[in-house]
Write a structure and sequence with these properties.
Number of helices: 7
CATH topology of the largest domain: 434 Repressor (Amino-terminal Domain)
Helix content: 55-70%
Distance between the termini: 46 Å
Largest sheet: none
CATH superfamily of the largest domain: lambda repressor-like DNA-binding domains
Order of helices and strands: HHHHHHH
Shape: globular
CATH class of the largest domain: Mainly Alpha
Radius of gyration: 14 Å
Length: 120
């Protein structure tokens, strides 16, 4: 049996981790995010593990579910040029991508950041 199309792709693994972290920060289950985005929960699980390359429709649906601009997720997949504004990390993305922070620290920082913006 052959491996899924993204089995060893570091970009897909990073994208999957980003989706998982966004879901955890939103405090929703895979099943709930699947319902919000119209993606099956088994497919979402595979995406979070970096096993598949999502279609443009799936990327857009996930972005909408998270309240993000789709271009932010396209940039995470490497589908936008490096000099595009979407590839520059925003505050939340920088917090999420910082390996020095644990999950509880990331959640706390993002809550504080959102409270300053009035988005909490």
């Amino acid at each position: 049996m052959s491996a899924p199309d993204g089995a060893d792709d570091p970009v897909l693994k990073a994208f999957g981790q980003f989706v998982k972290t966004q879901r955890q920060l939103a405090r929703v289950s895979q099943r709930h995010l699947a319902r919000l985005s119209g993606v099956s929960d088994s497919y979402l699980s595979q995406l979070e593990r970096g096993r598949y390359r999502p279609s443009a429709q799936v990327v857009t649906a996930l972005a909408d579910a998270f309240g993000l601009a789709p271009k932010a997720l396209y940039a995470k997949l490497g589908l936008l040029p490096e000099d595009d504004d979407a590839t520059r990390p925003g505050v939340e993305e920088a917090i999420i991508d910082d390996p020095r922070l644990g999950q509880p620290q990331k959640e706390a920082l993002i809550r504080v950041y959102r409270s300053y913006l009035g988005d909490d």
